[in-house]
Fold this sequence. Notes:
The complex is a heterodimer of chains A (161) and B (68).
Chain A: E1 2-7, E2 10-15, H1 22-29, E3 48-51, E4 54-57, E5 70-72, H2 88-95, H3 105-118, H4 124-130, H5 142-160
Parallel strand pairs in A: 1-5
Antiparallel strand pairs in A: 1-2, 3-4, 3-5
Chain B: H1 16-20
Amino acid sequence: xxxxxxxxxxxxxxxxxxxxxxxxxxxxxxxxxxxxxxxxxxxxxxxxxxxxxxxxxxxxxxxxxxxxxxxxxxxxxxxxxxxxxxxxxxxxxxxxxxxxxxxxxxxxxxxxxxxxxxxxxxxxxxxxxxxxxxxxxxxxxxxxxxxxxxxxxxxxxxxxx
Amino acid sequence: xxxxxxxxxxxxxxxxxxxxxxxxxxxxxxxxxxxxxxxxxxxxxxxxxxxxxxxxxxxxxxxxxxxx
Lengths: 161, 68
């Protein structure tokens, strides 16, 4: 079947088997391999993307659900629209060492950006609760939480400008 | 800590940019022409004696695009 949606700001039309998962469509058909599949069972969160602005695990979503929707993946996350700048959340992860191997990072970032966008004055407890669906096997989450707090603050500051 | 060099320094990692922007290129991200996936079939029996191995496994050769 043919589906049309907005992918990282660009109108996109693809032919898909109806049983294709969004994570598979992105990685195998559209070559956007920044969205990772860590578990294939919706536990790890490495595949989180934004569907119409909300964070979803793309390994648990069927491609036909994209028809008419707006999808943002890690490849589309950026600072000012159209710029080469990194998003404040990406900058915060780099600054505060919120990653080691980087495999969980795209999902962490997408979840974190959605958390911060939904609630400007995030507490550390809310960040930890919000990241429950994202598993990292390298770190003890300490630096990830610090990064998300800093990234959320930077997003707020950018909004106020 | 800003000007510390060596032990105690907190240098920025060179690899972070690509990990943060979805351009990490992990093994499962790599695609090559004609690339195949490997599957190991292991014995379900501990310390069993192998008397006869049929190769390829029954059914595998009838599946399209299965290599020997």
